[in-house]
Design a protein that fits this description.
By secondary structure, the protein is mainly alpha-helical. The chain has 13 helices and 4 strands. A two-stranded antiparallel ribbon has the order 1-4. α3 packs antiparallel against α4.
Length: 358
């Protein structure tokens, strides 16, 4: 029970820390005259990924590199399959044309790059530096592009309004205190979460990788869950999709880049199971977004149901494989021999149908 409480406390610390950090940094930036659009595209957009960064960097500093990398890979799979799926079950999600033409290909490219960099079984210092540089370049590109289309500023209107004169968060010391408190909660929360995850792995007799891919990944994705589902309930369906796609790109480029740099020039070894299976699942999930997004430019409810179903199947496979359960061979045959081929055929038909109608 103590480990469960430690995990919940760590998760709460991450959520509180991310909230305080985003609020303090946003108000501080606005106080210095930085536009709400730029703040929204940087601090607010990346704030939902702060828990992943805190946990992965903390895990690297603790020598738990499997948790650092598994957290990112698992979070990206969870974001697409579970968060988008659950959001689409609430209401069909409209997909912005820019997401289809630009953001999704970039997300796919980031997943493919990570897979290529990891083929030698590790992420080295050069790999980490490359990912970090690409993250900076991507952020600058988004800011420059969005300045030409300032309508996107409205997406962040509620979160990045300047503090009203006399408001409690309009003072510089308060803003700095919010930032410091947010960072403190992130550090303490990540330490508690990683500690609980390690204890879970030992108690259940599974690897750090499995815990990171499931429990830790779902836990650190709670800000994305809250953002996307709330946006779907409010009818802001474009934000629900954009939040997931942008977060996935940042997780790979920014989170793993910073985690690699935190290793101090050392290497982050990749668990064989990550390289042979989970990273391919992440790439496949990213690729699956294209035909789903293109057809009708929306994620229908039934497609959301398929996404959630696949996530449950993925978690079931991880659990069965970790326990070497007798049902694993049958489960694998059903998935590989029937479910996956049927899904691939369906996606191809969906992708070709608009072309035929045209």
């Amino acid at each position: 029970m103590s480990d469960a409480l430690l995990f919940v406390a760590g998760l709460a610390g991450l959520v509180i820390g991310a909230t305080l950090l985003v609020r303090g940094a946003s108000k501080l930036a606005l106080s210095f005259g930085i536009s709400p659009l730029v703040v929204g595209l940087t601090i607010v957009a990346f704030g939902t990924s702060a828990p992943e960064v805190a946990v992965s960097v903390g895990a690297v500093l603790d020598g738990r590199t499997d948790i650092a990398i598994g957290n990112v890979v698992g979070s990206n799979i969870f974001n697409v399959l579970f968060i988008l799926g659950a959001s689409a079950l609430i209401t069909p999600l409209v997909v912005n044309l820019q997401l289809i033409r630009q953001e999704v290909p970039i997300m796919i490219g980031a997943a493919l790059l990570l897979l290529l960099l990891g083929l030698d079984g590790k992420l080295g210092a050069f790999d980490a530096a490359l990912l970090t540089v690409l993250m900076v370049a991507y952020t600058v590109f988004l800011i420059v592009q969005s300045r030409r289309a300032s309508a996107q500023a409205s997406e962040y209107d509620d979160e990045v309004r300047p503090a009203a004169p006399g408001a409690w968060d309009s003072k510089l010391p308060v803003q700095l205190l919010l930032i410091a408190a947010g960072l403190g909660f992130l550090v303490v929360g990540s330490d508690a979460l990683v500690g609980a995850a390690v204890n879970f792995a030992k108690a259940l007799g599974v690897s750090d990788v499995v815990i990171a891919l499931t429990i830790v990944a779902a836990g650190t994705s709670m800000p994305e869950v809250a953002t996307s589902i709330t946006a779907a309930l409010k009818g802001e369906r474009d934000i629900a999709v954009g939040n997931v796609v942008g977060s996935n790109t940042f997780n790979i480029l920014g989170c793993l880049g910073l985690s690699g740099l935190a290793a101090g020039g050392g290497e982050l070894p990749l668990a064989p199971s990550l390289l042979s299976f989970d990273m391919w699942v992440m790439l496949a999930v990213s690729l699956a977004c294209l035909p789903v997004f293109v057809t009708g430019r929306e994620i229908a409810r039934w497609e959301g149901g398929v996404f959630v179903g696949y996530y449950l199947a993925y978690v079931a496979y991880l659990i069965l494989a970790a326990q070497q359960h007798d049902a694993l061979p049958f489960f694998s045959k059903v998935m590989l021999g029937f479910v996956v081929p049927l899904t691939v055929v369906t996606l191809i038909v969906m992708l070709l149908r608009p072309a035929r109608q045209a």
